[in-house]
């Protein structure tokens, strides 16, 4: 313990006890001493351990001396001072030793520091070296990877697979024994093989080219030969014409027609193609008959092909035209200036211009009557029109009332409901009309033909109903095809029903209601009422009749219908029947309105039984249709009216107050006279038994 | 010059047929539902249409609410008569009476609840049923028509309990006397007969056509309509519309109307009648014509007063006849609108 405390004390002595002056002196001392002997050298010679021992010992001695001095001092006495002095000297010696030791220790410390510093510098140098080396290593590694990543061009070449290569390549290229183990050599060999093969293919390509050249030349030669053949064939064709005609094989004619058809405008072309196709299909269906001879539909093209051709090269022609017209205009101006009206007229004519070609369709019916349809195309309006004509084999006696039945103006009216063909179906036309001051197309249809909707559909023209500005109307084959069959059938039924009506009217005008034998069962054997008059009446007159008001109000009296007046008489009773004949007869029934003149005028508004009679012919018409296609409907209805009038008159209750016999004795067999709240008469005829009952 | 013509719409075959059917439609019968909000109408094609009176009368009524809610084929022949019990709608036409549940009728595709045919003797032609009459006191239904008899059907069991014979021609109409269990019937033979239901026998016969005041031989003898109120009876048809005192069997008032009447009814102190011609006639008991209100049909066959206490807002008079329209009169003064098949 004491040694430690002394140890601690020693540095203190050096630092604090050693005043600056003392320190300086000490240093200068050592420097002075250094001149004579090197204390540093001494340090090397001395053992630090022993110095430590010495230091410990010195310190103990000092402690002991101090303790003795204290002891002496505390004892006091005179001799003490000497002893104390002696001891002080001893302590001084010891202090000297301590000082020496202190210096030594300093020197040692300094030496140690120097050594450490030196060592540290060495380490730094080594470290720097190491860093350099590491950097070098990194750089080298980078170089290596760069090398490894290098791509050669040959890798892009798509080589044949390894197995294939060994299988196909000749051994002098593949050199299996060398290349098997060495991938580098192997790749080289494969590249060689590739080159070899490519050379061969190039060779082949050249060969093929020359071959092609040769063949082309051959073709050229053969073509020349063929073209030289054409005139010869033509001459043969020419020669064969009489034979064709003789054998009824109009191949040549058909061919010519197809040639002409190329000049048709698209809608007419569509119509032509579809109609021809339909005609052929129909002819094939009836295979038992000789084909083409009496086919039901024949198609032909009329008009000048040259004009049509001229239409296709407008630039030169139009210029010519212009100059021509200019010349004409000059002439006219010389004579007189064309008024505005004339100009407008010209414009109108131009707008309503037809294509020079038209398609003729002849539809033959079973009874050999023919419906001739001529289809035109109005180029500027982009619509099609049709003109119709009906011819029969036997000359028809035209009854007065049948005037409109077969007239070209009305024979096809309303083929489809509402399609009266008096308005243009192309909404865009209205704008065109506005420009040239045409109010409606109605005024021109007689000349141009009717633009029925079904005609547009046959030509594949489809007009949108709500977008009047749409100009792109394309001729569509599928539209035409889908309408061809129904329309043709409708046309046929229309013609047939019109012809049937035509015949019937002839006898109706003579007061005979023709009832065919297969409809006889609908009526009793004895019918007393007679038809005495059958006339056609104008639409306006029909509208004016007082007993047809409700028909007009129900919208069943359009101006496309035909109107007739029939008069049926029995005794003093006269039954007037106003008839509306829908153009769609006989699928749409004729509508009757009655007015009975007998004991005052009776119509449906004041007599329930007149109303019932009307409903018998109008609503229950289906049982009067007779055998299909129900052409007898109208005559059956008229005959039924006669029967109904008989029943009405015979069952009229007899007025007891009037003297004399009844005007119309009851001859019909009736179960009951009246029935129900409206006191209906027995209008229903029961066929085999022959009695009348209530419906 | 062109007259104002309704726009001729292009019509196809079916449209023309439908238009003709509508044109020749006759509505023979009407009946108001027990709740008072619905009106059933039956036509000559055997169809029953159900109209909603409350919808058509409401302030926000549209055109569609004047169309039937439901139309269904009920009979093969015309429907001459319809009545409503508390739950059922009974319809009759050619020989059969059919019952329909009012609750189900309003739904689509409803089926008849039951149908009954009175025992007929003839087989050649099925007699029609012209009139139905409910007798609430004995919960029975009286059917009359083509076979000249009054058949009583018990509504509980559905059996025909008795047949009253006496008419010599078919029966047009029936009326019930409220106090005593007596029924009046009028027929084609020109007689009005009074039947006592307890004794099941005829107690009085009035041969209307034999009285000079009202007979009109040119129109025939038939009695097309009758109505009764206490001791009074009004009947018309071939003979003129006449008010009778039943106890003394004497005609008291002859109403000056030339056209044969097809329906008559007492309403408060008025008599309403309709028939040939488009008007609903309103008479004072004294024989004075109070008003003639024109309807839309050329001839009327049935009037129906909706007096169901359940629906006071639907208290209207409806008239139907020779058209597909049912005229609705909200007050007796004028035609408000028409319901249409």
From TrEMBL, chain B:
GO terms for cellular component: chromosome, telomeric region; nuclear speck; THO complex part of transcription export complex. GO terms for molecular function: RNA binding. It holds the Pfam family WD40. PROSITE patterns: WD_REPEATS_1 (PS00678), WD_REPEATS_2 (PS50082), WD_REPEATS_REGION (PS50294). Keywords: Apoptosis, Developmental protein, mRNA processing, mRNA splicing, mRNA transport, Nucleus, Phosphoprotein, Repeat, RNA-binding, Transport, WD repeat. Belongs to the WD repeat THOC6 family. This is WD repeat-containing protein 58. The lineage of its organism: Eukaryota, Metazoa, Chordata, Craniata, Vertebrata.
